Amino acid sequence: MQIKLISTSDVHGYLAPTDYSRRDHVAPFSLSRAATVIQQLTKQDDADVWPIVIDNGDYVQGSPLTYFIAKRHRTAAPLYSRLARCNHVVAGVFGNHEFNYGLDYLDLCESARDYPMLAANIHDDQHRTLFSKPYLLLERAGVKVAILGLTTQFVSHWEQPKNIAGLHFEDVVACAKRWVPQLHKLADVVVVAYHGGLERDPQTDAPTERLNGENRGSALLAEVPGIDAMITGHQHRKLAVKIHGVPVTQPGMKGANVGVITLEVNPQRQITHREPAVISVKYAQPNAQLMALVSPINEQMEDWLDTPLGQINGDMLVHNHLEARLHNHPYIDFINQVEMAATGTDIAATALFNDDVPGLKQHVTMREVMNSYVYPNKLAVETITGADLKRALERCASYFLLKNGRVIVNPEFLRPKLRHYVYDVYSGIDYTFDLTRPIGQRLVQLDYHGQPVQDDQSLTVTLNHYRAGGGGNYPMYQTAKIDRQLPTDMTVLIADYFADHPVVTAVQPTNFKVNY
Length: 516
What we know:
Elements: E1 2-8, H1 31-41, E2 49-55, H2 64-72, H3 79-86, E3 89-93, H4 103-109, E4 117-118, E5 122-124, E6 135-140, E7 143-151, H5 155-158, E8 167-169, H6 172-186, E9 189-195, H7 217-223, E10 229-231, E11 238-243, E12 246-251, E13 257-265, E14 271-280, H8 288-305, E15 308-313, E16 316-317, H9 321-327, H10 330-343, E17 348-351, E18 359-360, E19 363-365, H11 366-372, E20 379-385, H12 386-397, E21 400-403, E22 406-409, E23 424-427, E24 430-434, E25 443-448, E26 451-452, E27 458-464, H13 465-468, E28 482-485, H14 490-500, E29 503-505, E30 512-515
Parallel strand pairs: 1-2, 2-3, 3-4, 7-9, 9-10, 10-12, 15-29, 24-30
Antiparallel strand pairs: 1-13, 5-8, 6-7, 11-12, 13-14, 15-19, 16-18, 17-23, 20-27, 20-28, 21-22, 24-25, 25-26
Helix pairs in contact: 2-8, 3-8, 10-14
C-alpha cells in the first residue's frame, strides 16, 4: 500500500488567488489553487493508494478576507470548514493564529466541519469538545495510521489572555513522549502534525534561532522515537527533508504549495520507503467548486476594501524598505502617531512588517490600510524602565550588519524565516545607533523630552500586544508590566484616526539616526 500524507499549512485565509493589492490582481497562490493539486493527489483513493489530507493550522486568520468575515460577517465563518470538506481534509490542527479572534469565533469557524481538530498538547479547563481529541486513528485494508496533533506551546506568550481563557499549552516534546508510544500500540504508522517548525538546521543540527520553545520540531525528532512522518508549519518555509530518517514537510504559506509525504507499506504493515515532497500550486487553475463557495463573500469584501477613508498630503508610500527601517519613514511615524492618539502615551513603536508593505497612497482606502497593516494586532500600554528600553533598542540595532561598508539585514532576521516584523522603529524618543560598534553596544544616544534616559527612569510605551508580551525575543517586555490593553484592532484604529483627521500630512521624522 502507498500512503500519501497531503498537507496544507499557514494558508492564512488566502482562499482566492489574490493578494488583495488591487481588485483585479491574480496571485500564483491560494487555497483554491491548492485544491486543484489536492484533487489530483486524491484522485486514486483505494486499497492500493490511500490519500490522507491534513490542514496544519493558521487557516482562519491573516488576509483581508479573514478580517472581513471575523469583524463584519461572522455568519460566514462556517465557510472555512466547508472549504476543508471540499479538500477532503480528515483532520485539522490549531495554529497560533487560530485564537486571534477568540474561542467563540473559532468554534463558529469549525461548526460545519465533519473532521476532528487534533489538540494533544492543548488542555482545556472547560472541557470544550473542540479541544477534546488528541489524535485520530484511521484504518484501511488492515493498515492503521495514527495522527497526533500538536500546536506550538508559545501561543500563551503571544495571545491575549481573554482569547485563550481556560486553555493551557503543554511542551510539545513532553506531550509527544507520552503519546507516541501509546499510539504505536494502536497503529502501524504514527504521524505527527505539528503547527511549529524546526529550530535546527536539518543537515548540520546547528541552531537556526533562539531555542526558546517556539519551534520544537528538531527536538521532537531527536528525542521522541517512533515518529514515522512529521508535518510542520508556522515558519512559512518550503521544506521537504529527512531528519534521522523521518520525512518532514512544510508547505510555505498562503496556499503556495502542498506538502506530500509518501509512505510505502508492505503486506506485513511495515514502512519500506519514505519520501517527502512539496508541490507548487503556481500553475494549477483555481478549483471551481471551492471558488463558488468563496466568491460571494469575497466580492462583498472587495467592495468594502475600496471604501474611502482619507487623504495624504505628501508621500507616504514605502519605496525602499531597508532605507525606511534605517532612517525612519512617514508611514512608520504615522502608525506610531495613531498608536499614541489611541492610548494617550507619547512613546510608541511599530514594525514595517514585511517588504510587501506598500504604505499609503494619496487617496486612502481600506484596501491600503489592510495591505500595509497586515496583522490583527491590538495595542498594549506598558510601563518599563529606561534600562528596559535600552535593551529593546539594542535588540532592534542587531537587525543591521555592516558588510564592506554597506548596511545589510542580519541573516538572523532572514533565515530560516523572514522576520522583519521583529525590528521596531520608535517615536517619542530621540535615539542613535552606531553600527560600527559590536552588537549589544550600538545605542549611543537615547533622549526623552530632551534629556538622557536614565536606567531607573519609569517610562510608558505603546506596543502591539505581540511585542508587549515579549514576542520576537524581547524579554524586557512582559505581560506582567502591561498597564492596560485596547480591545480594538489596529486597522480599525487607523480608520478611526482618518475619521478624525481626514487629511494627514506625510512628515519625514528626524528622531532616529544611524551612524555607519
